[in-house]
Each structure stands twice: as C-alpha cells, then as structure tokens.
Amino acid sequence: MHVIYFNTKGGVSKSTLCLYSARQLQRTGYQISVSNTDQQQHVELIKNNDAEYHLYDTAGAFTDANIRLLKAASTVDAKIIIPICTGKTDAYEVDFVLERLTQYGIRNKAIFVLTKTRANCLSTKLRRIELLGTGVPVVNWTMPLLEDFSEQRDTLRTCTEISKFLNEVVLV
Ligand SMILES: Nc1ncnc2c1ncn2[C@@H]1O[C@H](COP(=O)(O)OP(=O)(O)O)[C@@H](O)[C@H]1O
Ligand SMILES: [Mg+2]
Fold first, then answer.
1. What's the number of domains the chain is made of?
2. Residue span of the structural domain in which 112 resides
C-alpha cells in the first residue's frame, strides 16, 4: 500500500502527518518506507524493500516529481491523503487539485483529512460539508491543533490521535 500526503497548499500538516504515521506504524510493528518529493526533506527517509506501507511526503505543488508519483499511484494500491485546514483560503485550491487528480486517474483514491483544528467547531463542520460536496470522502477523525505535534513530541495524546487516523484510513 502506498500512502501519499499531498496538497498544493503548504503548512497543512502533510509532513507532520507523514512523520507521525511512519513512527506509529513502526511502533506497531509494520515494515514501512518513507520517501520524499520535497526538497525541504522535513521527514526522515527510510528505505525498506520489504515495506508493507510506503509513505510519501510531498512538496506543496504539482512539481515534476509529484506528477510522476501521482501518475504512478494510478497503477498500484494507493491512497492520496489530502490534509486541509479550516481557514477561508484553505479551500481555494481544492477544485484545482481534484481536477488534476481526475486527470491522473486517481481521484477515486483521494481522501481529505481536516487538520490543525477541533472536531466540533463550526468551521470544521462547514468545511466537512463543503468537501463532501466534491464526492471525495472526508476522514471522520480530525487532527487536533496540538503543541505536541508542532514540537514533534511523542506523547500518549499524539500516539492515540495518530492511531485513530491509521485505523480509519491506512490499516483497513
Ligand atoms: N496538528 C498540529 N498541531 C499543531 N501544529 C501543527 C500540527 N500539524 C502541523 N503543525 C505545525 O504546522 C507547521 C506546518 O506543518 P507541516 O507538517 O510542515 O505542513 P506541510 O508539510 O503541509 O507544509 C509546522 O510547524 C508543524 O509543526
Ligand atoms: Mg512539508
């Protein structure tokens, strides 16, 4: 299974979700690899030919490397995780992104996840409804805004939260 964290928007938690997913999957005993199409290399790369889960952190744009990766995803078991925040400007590029995913034949592999927010606040609920209108699924779990995530601490809270994400999206 290939799990690609992608959105053209920056700062939406692509790298953070990838990093925490990788750590938690490893902790749970899965074989994983981590690759990166982002020059900033925010996530530690892990090479593993026996990986059950291949994770990809990406740059926030349709770079050549991202286009190659996304096109390749059409031929394999893959999920395109699109982290998205709840701010007004955060949805501006959604149609553009989905149009491209359709073009690459992977729109049916896309799934939105709401990040850096609270599950029950109005902006989260409204963004969820707006996103569901595209026909692309939205993960029930939302990634809470937590200092432990920005400080990259592995706490009970971050581990529990990421486990919920993995159980709903990846380990199914
Ligand atoms: N759930 C969260 N709570 C608090 N801070 C977060 C959370 N997710 C990400 N961050 C912080 O927000 C910034 C952008 O996150 P990052 O994962 O680098 O986004 P992207 O890779 O999409 O550009 C980083 O400083 C990161 O530590
Ligand atoms: Mg990043």
1. 1
2. 2-165
